[in-house]
Write a structure and sequence with these properties.
The chain is α+β, with helices and mostly antiparallel strands. 24% of the residues lie in helices and 24% in strands. The strands form 5 sheets. It has a 6-stranded mixed sheet. Strands 1-2-6-9-4 form a 5-stranded mixed sheet, with helices on one face. A two-stranded antiparallel sheet has the order 7-8. The longest helix is centred in the last third of the chain and has 21 residues. The two termini are 30 Å apart.
Length: 351
């Protein structure tokens, strides 16, 4: 089965816990690795990151594999969601072995957060350990290769890109070598995903056929000028009504079934940021915490050809992050809460 999402990497599962209503507009997303874990790395480019256990992923350090990655709303408060995931893993003896007994483990759960505080109306509404546990349980219950829910789900529930509703997006590709690469993003940026001159999503300029000025499948990604003008007027009204500066962050998990070292995985995390820069402008600002995790399950060897065999995976990672951000914005639904009005791209550019 091919779901065209992160779960096309055999063994990876994704679960969301979504908190909506009663002042809430936030959530947590967990990427659960196969038992035994996956090689992991991270690259942080934003100037205001909120992270946990990312130092453990440095190739110079001890930990080689992780059992789960957590993406969460709630800014730094939301990092508490990782505690629920740790507890769930510990109960199953999954983690770094630190003693002779099967329960002597320490689960290393790298985590990154987005800023969505107050968007539901209650600044104190944020994910906690119970939210993280709910998300990892949802991942564990999911069927192999189940499509990832996109849009207003999990960590993308309260996400906003510029003034437009963001969310979760995912995409995958199988390369000619037989290796699969996939990405999942939580698009929530201070910068915009929309070209102010045309109304097109920046990421759509990089789709197939764009060398001819056309979008995917030969469609022009630029809305009609009158539609774009109406959308800009609507966004100006929203900016006045919301009265707050848009805040951060875009997160991504880029995964492959290739056998990568930690150093190679770190290179994948770094080059995948290029995909973010294609789809959001400006990006990696001081009030963004842009972070990319890389996971490698090791099911397929790299093609013979020396270290340059990694290049096709690096290029695919960047392309898929761009595609996943576009999908996040196209899948998102408009939201209106006491904390603000966040129109979706589909509402602004209907048709």
């Amino acid at each position: 089965m091919v779901s065209d999402s992160l779960t096309d990497i055999a063994g990876l599962r994704v679960g969301h816990a979504t908190l909506i209503g009663g002042g809430q507009l936030t959530g947590t997303t967990v990427v659960l690795a196969p038992e035994g874990g996956a090689v992991a790395a991270v690259d942080v480019r934003g100037g205001g990151p909120g992270t946990r256990e990312t130092d453990a992923l440095d190739p110079r350090n001890l930990v080689q594999r992780v059992e789960a990655v957590v993406l969460t709303g709630g800014s730094a408060y939301g990092l508490d969601a990782a505690a629920g995931v740790m507890a769930w893993l510990e109960e199953r003896g999954r983690g770094v072995r630190v003693g002779p007994g099967p329960s002597h483990v320490v689960p290393v759960v790298p985590t990154a957060c987005v800023f969505d505080l107050g968007r539901g109306g209650d600044f104190g509404a944020r994910p906690d350990a119970s939210t993280g546990r709910a998300a990892v349980e949802a991942a564990a219950r999911s069927e192999p290769f189940a499509p990832v829910e996109q849009g207003n789900a999990g960590a993308g529930t309260g996400a906003v890109v510029g003034r437009v509703k963001g969310g979760v997006g995912s995409a995958s590709v199988r390369l000619e070598s037989g290796i699969t690469v996939a990405a999942l993003v939580v698009a929530n940026a201070a910068g915009s995903g929309i070209d102010p001159a045309t109304g097109a999503l920046y990421g759509r300029y990089f789709e197939a056929g764009q060398d001819k000025g056309e979008g995917q499948a030969g469609r022009d990604p630029r809305p009609a000028p009158e539609v774009h003008e109406a959308a800009m007027r609507r966004l100006a009204e929203v900016a006045v009504g919301n009265g707050t500066q848009p805040l951060n962050t875009t997160l991504a998990v880029v995964a492959t079934d290739a056998a990568l070292t930690k150093a190679q995985a770190q290179k994948l995390a770094g080059t995948s940021h290029d995909g973010m820069a294609r789809a959001v402008r400006p990006v990696h600002l001081l009030n963004d915490g842009d972070t990319v995790f890389a996971l490698a399950t090791g099911e397929r060897a790299l093609a013979d050809g020396g270290p340059l065999a990694l290049n096709e995976i690096l290029a695919a990672g960047a392309d898929l992050v761009t595609a996943a951000i576009v999908r996040a914005m196209l899948a998102a639904d408009s939201v209106r809460t006491p904390g603000g009005t966040f129109p979706s791209y589909r509402e602004l550019y209907a048709g």
